[in-house]
Amino acid sequence: MSQAVVGPTSTYVRAVSLTNMRNYDNAEVSFTPGVTVLVGANGQGKTNLVEALIYLSTLGSHRVATDAPLIREGAELAVVRAEAVRDGRPTLLEMEIHAGRANKARVNRTAVPRTRDILGILKTVVFSPEDLALVKGDPSDRRRYLDDILVQRQPRFAGVRSDYDRVLKQRNALLKSSHAVRRGDRTEMDRTLQVWDDQLAEFGAELMAARIDIIGRLASPAAQSYAALAGAEAILGVDYAPSIDISATPPTPEALAERLRESLAARRREELERGITLVGPHRDEVALTLLGRPLRGYASQGESWSAALALRLASYDVLAEHGDEPILILDDVFAELDSVRRGHLVQRISVTPQTFITAAVEDDVPTGLGAHWFDVRQGAVSARGG
Ligand SMILES: Nc1ncnc2c1ncn2[C@@H]1O[C@H](COP(=O)(O)OP(=O)(O)O)[C@@H](O)[C@H]1O
Ligand SMILES: [Mg+2]
């Protein structure tokens, strides 16, 4: 197979350097476009290496919700760097990850005001065994899937999301404290809540409108990939399932904000009783169906794998449609896939500018990819064959 073509609208990773990240003390590795395979026994650092790239593109990990586990045991901070090349021009991305205080990001050795300013430069799509949670896990797993696409596509939504989270937290704290408020002070409480309602509705509606837009783009490529993976008659449905009825609401931020305000007003008493915010995008869900039936609770293991893979490939398509093609990361998945799914994936890899594959067993990796091979052993990475 010939090497994938890197056009002007694709970015590839030319180098990665890790200091005190996970089980890496110090490592520097150079890469080329096309397919890179990282092989090594379990627990050697294959996933840790690709996790560094994922972190630089999403400011998070596909494995953990907090930063602390990313820092090598006993170290104060981790430093993760990657050189991303686009159209022949390199951009150096750097992140200092601290456990107890704010992280620091640099682009081309210059500090940026907020870490989220590095988002959008390096885009990644990861497919890993953890992705079964997209089908079988909690709604939060699917919200995260959606928001990761959103933020990589339009980094400003990282700001919208953190504004929303902040307002939600403060509103919840206020609702919780309401039990302690004497009856005479209720008007003051209501007035304060109204202020939070307006902000929650404003940020929440922006997030909802953007998610609905993303779902609209994902649905058809996801269904197509699923059909190719599992047989043409199986139709995968991907729909936004909000916590409020928006069937008669146009999906614009203005209309959704109005609708959210109405819903908050209607459920205020219940919210005060329970001390928690019951409506808003933090309660929304992505509904996955197969021939109209919910996947969760019904799908077989094979169907679940196909659906998860179809969702990841669809996210690749949606990210590629808007700017550069992302880097595809296949973390330990070939051993899990049957020959039809493998074949489909190999076909996709052949037209992807840069792919990283990790595997514990060499024989699990399909042949004919024209790959560059690296051995990973105890936090050291070495290229094979010179
Ligand atoms: N913060 C950390 N400090 C030191 N070692 C770590 C840290 N986090 C994970 N590890 C080690 O990294 C190894 C797992 O690496 P990983 O990349 O997931 O393996 P694999 O090669 O199987 O993908 C384990 O041995 C684990 O103990
Ligand atoms: Mg692994």
Question: Which key features would you list for this structure?
Answer:
386 residues; alpha/beta; Rossmann fold; 40% helix; 23% strand; binds adenosine-5'-diphosphate
How do you describe this structure in short?
With 386 residues, the protein is an alpha/beta fold.
Structure in words:
With 386 residues, the chain is α/β, with parallel strands linked by helices. The chain has a domain at 1-123 and 324-386: Rossmann fold. Helices cover 40% and strands 23% of the residues. The protein has nine helices and 15 strands. The strands form three sheets. A six-stranded antiparallel sheet has the order 2-1-4-5-6-7, with helices on one face. Strands 8-12-13-3-14-15 form a six-stranded mixed sheet, sandwiched between helices. It has a three-stranded antiparallel sheet with strand order 9-10-11. Helix 4 crosses helix 5. The longest helix is centred in the middle third of the chain and has 45 residues, at 186-230. Bound molecules: adenosine-5'-diphosphate (ADP) and magnesium ion. The site of adenosine-5'-diphosphate has 16 residues, from helix 1.
- The CATH superfamily of the domain at 1-123 and 324-386 is P-loop containing nucleotide triphosphate hydrolases
Give the overall pLDDT as a whole number.
93
Helix content: 25-40%
Dominant shape:
globular
Ligands in the structure? adenosine-5'-diphosphate, magnesium ion
Q: The CATH topology of the domain at 1-123 and 324-386, please?
A: Rossmann fold
